[in-house]
Amino acid sequence: xxxxxxxxxxxxxxxxxxxxxxxxxxxxxxxxxxxxxxxxxxxxxxxxxxxxxxxxxxxxxxxxxxxxxxxxxxxxxxxxxxxxxxxxxxxxxxxxxxxxxxxxxxxxxxxxxxxxxxxxxxxxxxxxxxxxxxxxxxxxxxxxxxxxxxxxxxxxxxxxxxxxxxxxxxxxxxxxxxxxxxxxxxxxxxxxxxxxxxxxxxxxxxxxxxxxxxxxxxxxxxxxxxxxxxxxxxxxxxxxxxxxxxxxxxxxxxxxxxxxxxxxxxxxxxxxxxxxxxxxxxxxxxxxxxxxxxxxxxxxxxxxxxxxxxxxxxxxxxxxxxxxxxxxxxxxxxxxxxxxxxxxxxxxxxxxxxxxxxxxxxxxxxxxxxxxxxxxxxxxxxxxxxxxxxxxxxxxxxxxxxxxxxxxxxxxxxxxxxxxxxxxxxxxxxxxxxxxxxxxxxxxxxxxxxxxxxxxxxxxxxxxxxxxxxxxxxxxxxxxxxxxxxxxxxxxxxxxxxxxxxxxxxxxxxxxxxxxxxxxxxxxxxxxxxxxxxxxxxxxxxxxxxxxx
Amino acid sequence: xxxxxxxxxxxxxxxxxxxxxxxxxxxxxxxxxxxxxxxxxxxxxxxxxxxxxxxxxxxxxxxxxxxxxxxxxxxxxxxxxxxxxxxxxxxxxxxxxxxxxxxxxxxxxxxxxxxxxxxxxxxxxxxxxxxxxxxxxxxxxxxxxxxxxxxxxxxxxxxxxxxxxxxxxxxxxxxxxxxxxxxxxxxxxxxxxxxxxxxxxxxxxxxxxxxxxxxxxxxxxxxxxxxxxxxxxxxxxxxxxxxxxxxxxxxxxxxxxxxxxxxxxxxxxxxx
Lengths: 549, 272
Prior knowledge:
CATH class of the largest domain in chain A: Alpha Beta
Keywords (chain A): Cobalamin, Cobalt, Isomerase, Metal-binding
Mean pLDDT of chain A: 94
Structural class of chain A: alpha/beta
Cofactor (chain A): adenosylcob(III)alamin
Protein name (chain A): methylmalonyl-CoA mutase
Helix content of chain B: 25-40%
Distance between the termini of chain A: 58 Å
Distance between the termini of chain B: 11 Å
Oligomer: heterodimer
Strand content of chain B: 25-35%
EC number (chain A): 5.4.99.2
Low-confidence stretches of chain A: none
Organism (chain A): Ornithinibacillus halotolerans
CATH topology of the largest domain in chain A: TIM Barrel
CATH superfamily of the largest domain in chain B: 2,3-Dihydroxybiphenyl 1,2-Dioxygenase, domain 1
Number of helices of chain A: 22
Strand content of chain A: 5-15%
Mean pLDDT of chain B: 91
Radius of gyration of chain A: 23 Å
Shape of chain B: elongated
Largest interface: A-B, 41 and 32 residues
Radius of gyration of chain B: 24 Å
CATH architecture of the largest domain in chain B: Roll
């Protein structure tokens, strides 16, 4: 054994021993049903390429995971995305999920909130409370988070174009609960680039949108050091039809665009990079998905250390949330979806995810019912507690197939990154429509393969049955839109409207300045109960709106 | 016959347009003209676009749950603008229990998750042009098998006075082809380049003479699907590349009473 390798191995063992002393693992030791001892990590001794390409978990380039003990210490965070109707109803579902053992919240907002329209805006007609909860003013946010202790629960918010506003509301609710900003934990999605590519809830053009994002980076570095300022999302790119490689490559390219923008705004890379988070899809091709997660970690680590010269190891780590693939679910024989979700969730766990949302079986039909949402959560709990896959770190590391696939996915991600760089980076590539075209091409080919039965989807194009799919579905009360409008009007009547006018004027002034951080102005505006629509209206006037390409 | 014109629209704020985009392209491949509105269209905007673009049918896609409000509004807007004759169909994430309500509100049909492009295209075809097959407009060319192009060419150019457009070798078929324009069609003289050529076999069995008739069409995939659905035996189930980069496919003479017909979609534009 070379002394160098021996040194690395010993050093890792020693440092893990230290960590485990301070933060014990779930159990003293782990065994199989036959009492075979399960080690923390399996690896080849004295192997140069191992250290270069894979490394130990918790060490560069993080192929095997970002923590040394992974799920032996703590399971991934089980975080089910939920939200529908009114803030009050969603609050009830949240408290139910927390009682059921969920460990973090994830808020879905309705489309008017996501696109910056108040519930009484004509554009909002028919959409209020449909795909998530309707939030107009701080009043709604207070109801949403009622009796949920923000110093104990971390909250993920799927909000992009108006991310600053919802974050400001979260801060304001925290203050009312007596929780200082510094203690707040959670994530805002805040990833506008993938909205242009795949998800469609953009408001402003790229330049001011990037400013809003880097303002959040700077503000959170100062005041919310534990908050994830962005969740760079491949999930929706995949849902729009991309391949696994395209998903990872376009997401990483977008990530680089945010890093570039933040550096250009004067931040040091290590000031914000440790708070960047990612969000991926877990699709059907089991091993490719695992390889994708492992390759993405390695590519990002190299980019951050070598290209951006980040010094803090936390800046090198790609931390990610995973959601199982919504577009893989079928409306036919919906219970089959439980099996799909199980395998996708397992791939995410074997790929080393930090948190996970498992879809409900009925999502191809409507929003999930309480029972379906519970089965989805139970799926994760069964994988964690019963399967034993969480008892050793990166159990598939060293598999000839998985390692070869990881290398190949990595090479193809890099080829796409090169192509995007030649187009002038992610923002230019998006404006030119490059990523959109690539995704659409794959989506169409997939559809044709399914229709020609070259790709089999069980229950859809093979093994079909005559069935009446009429499961119990969750319905959003049609009266909700009316009630939400009335409640907004009541807030408008009660609040100090002179104050609202003055905070919005100040925001307008700040938006005109190029180097004024907008966050403090937005915090003031929401505290005065200015609505999401009113704040966005001020910004629309200054920034303009993005036209679909 | 005019191409069927379809407006695919995304009402409301929903940004999920994978389905809308895939369907737009799928219907285009079925030979229809498709206009896609893009995201965030109000019912009034959709109705206006449908009228301005003079479409035959409007297809709405929504995955956000707003269909109960927005789909009927599109129907209303069309009515209000004297365009109630334009049928509206819809799709997306639509619970089956909502379908009767939507049909009652005047939506012609709802396609739910798992419907294929073929089903949709056939439905639209039946709805707009029931029981009508678009007639073949012209003969693209007549293929004539010859032993030697060089030897027979003077008959066509001198005695018939036709103009030679060019000679091309199609490697995949092991033939050399001479093109001679005649009106809006052509003669294609086919000379085998070796003994594996189908033309060589033809010449041995039957001697020189007419080999096939090629029909000009502009929607080869849809034509092939339709033929195969009607039980016509095809030599090529999928289009392949022929001379001039045209997409071609042959029908089996067993199914066409002894005539070898080729379907030919010329490259770089549609037949007019």
